[in-house]
Amino acid sequence: MRQFFLLSSLALLPIASAAQSTQTDTIAAKELQEVVIEAPKVIRKADMDVYHPSKSAVGNSKNGMQLLGNLMIPSLTVSDALGTVQAAGQSVQLRINGRQATIDQVRALLPETIRRVEWIDNPGLRYGGANYVLNIIVANPTLGGSLMASARPALNTAWGFYMADAKFNVGRSQWEVGGNYKLTDNLSAHRDYTETFTYPDGSSITRDETSRGGRIDNSMANIWASYNYIKPDTTVFMAEFGFHRDINDKTRYDGLLSLSDGSDDILLTDSRGADGNTPSLSLYWQQNFSRRQMLILNFSSSFYFGRTYSDYLEQLPGAASYLTDIHTDIKDRNQAYAVEADYIKNWKNGRFTAGASYTANRNRSEYVSLGGEVFHQRQDKVYIFAEYFHRFGKWTATAGMGVQYTDFLFKESNRGNHSWSPRPQATITYALNQSHNFRLSFTSWQSTPTLAETNIVPRQLDGFQWQVGNQDLRTANSYMLTFRYGFSLPRVNGTFGIRAFTSPNAITPLLRWDDNRLLTTYENSRGLQNLSFFLAPQIEIVPGWLTASGYVQFRMERMRGTGYEYRSNAWSGNASLQLSHWGFVLSGQYTRAQRDLWGEKISWGEDLNIIDLSYNWKSWQFGAGIIMPFGKYDQGSRSLSRWNRNEQHMRLDMRIPYIQVSYNLQWGRQRRSARKLVDSSASADRSASAGR
Asked: Are 571 and 598 in contact (CB under 8 A)?
């Protein structure tokens, strides 16, 4: 079976299509008369791929996440069990009717309310530098209500997920309330770690860490409530409140440290964690005017009140005192606010979009372990953009320019930085016929320094290593050029593409010796460049019964920084296979995580496989599955630095069998969530306690 998944991942692999557009369902805005390429399951437009859920896909789903998985979109990896959505190993910006949404909000959607799914793999300027966008469109609201509930407990450990959501509709108004709870308690973990330190004089020492066990706790809860008012063809108003609670987020490793200089073995304990609360509020208003014009305003805010902490202990066996005793405790009170305004004007063959947004972060960090010393950081971002889309027969073109202004200041030192960054973007698409199209796109974006990268408070990692931020960091620029060929053949559709990426001043870690301490700080590097080749097909092996989809990518990278230059080549991808009939759905999924070169380190995420079987009966769904039925869970990194070469593997006991029971109750005629065309995002930052 394992070989089958591996062969499937090589036979099936990446896709997409791409860029900005979103017309309203709740307000009558006609779609542009674009040339589309129709396939049995996908319509290829100039700026996106559109998937319309089949009757069987809806019938076999009990929430929005399951429906996304049943669509089998190539290159997209959807796991309802793990609560993740990724594409080509990167994050996917989720949207519901154009407004940015969380996985919890997507999961709370009733499958019957989803009209179509828009897959955008070259997002326009309005999406703020997102890698990919998945926009879920729901129909106009009517009357009625619904109750959704689901439970997924594990059979061999304290792991599981539980949720409930209710919607009530009266006239043009809808109220929603819901909540969920994710349980991960005392999950067994192990870490294998080997590192070699080289001093400036050429001498070196090697430390090998042998695991003595460990554990991971990661329990959290969310509650939400929303209200929306919709007057068709005229007005949409939405108000949403959410509250996130980190109940127990802690990782601990115990190990035995052996040194190459013949010293006695050392017992070590390395642990870190966080706990806190994050309330959030967003308000949205959308108004249609004459001559196909639209104005959208959005406000959002979030607050983080919590703490991060870490402990690193080294001790000789049987000794009463510690060789190394490092304790870090940081309390955060951080705020974020964002407001955005967009204007959209449509013509028969064109569309003009312009917008402006402002985002403010106010961070206050109290270092309890440093006698209560307090540090403040202020960060402001202004973003302005305009872009135009037009159709010329079989050709379509989009061009636009965005400008971002970033300013951040550290109150205690009165130091900071500010910059203006242009963000040009353009796309050209040619539809050869109903089965083939070609797209060339150029995009750019900026990345601002984070709170952890700029914090100048020294944090000790272990007996050798320290970490400190750099307040002189500048905003980093990234540019990407992508060519895609989309094809739609009988029982097979997909995309082949080539992608070139560069970030000439990427913000990356930098290692250097400071006396007898190995210091990790951050710099604007000399740049990262990579070239990727990808393929993503969907194959109807037995129409209506058996479908396969997947993604494979080969990427060549070069990374340059102060005193180093590295190259890396790696394969990555995923494969999904689904058999459905008579209410049963049997699915299998295999993922090989992307290997990322960043700074002087190659890191990789989770290599996973999952098997799931479910049965749908009326309003009920009963299921069972197992995470990691084959192989061993591995997540880790490898440092290439001349000062510290190391390799780390985190291994979890992830062979987790589970059962699932879901129930959907609906009454009256269903109202579907209001649609947002834009969404301002305000995400409160948080500190990071140092860890090895």
From this structure: no
Contact criterion met (CB below 8 Å) for 252 and 270: yes
* Tokens linked to 92: 């996917």
The pairing of beta strand 266-289 with beta strand 635-640: unpaired
192/181 Cα distance (integer angstroms)? 31
Judge whether 94 and 50 are in contact, CB under 8 Å.
Answer: no
pLDDT tens-digit map of 581-636: 888 999 999 999 989 999 999 999 888 899 999 999 989 999 999 999 998 888 89
Pull the structure tokens for residue 625: 């599955």
The CA radius of gyration of the chain, in Å to the nearest whole number, is 26
Beta carbons of 381 and 359 less than 8 angstroms apart: yes
Torsion sign across C-alpha atoms 410, 414, 415, 417: positive
In the predicted structure, residue 24 carries a pLDDT above the cut 90: no
Enter the pTM of the model.
0.81
Q: How far apart are CA 437 and CA 439, in angstroms?
A: 7
Cis peptide, bond prior to residue 13, ω within 30 of zero: yes
CA distance 633 to 654: 6
Rounded Cα distance, 507 and 516, in Å: 25
Encoding tokens for residue 246? 């980190």
Distance (Å, whole) CA 54 – CA 614: 18
**Alpha-carbon torsion angle 461, 466, 472, 477, nearest 10:** -50
C-alpha distance from residue 385 to each of 296, 501, 547 (Å): 15, 22, 41
Reported as a single tens digit per residue, the pLDDT across 516-557 is 889 999 999 999 999 999 999 999 999 889 999 999 999 999
Q: Which helix (H) or strand (E) holds 288?
A: strand 266-289
Angle CA 491–494–497, to nearest 5: 155
Strand partners, 623: 614, 660
Q: Are 682 and 242 in contact (CB under 8 A)?
A: no
Q: In 566-668, which residue ranges form alpha helices assigned H by DSSP? A: none
pLDDT at 688: 61
Q: Which of 59, 3, 18, 128 is nearest to 495 (CA)?
A: 18
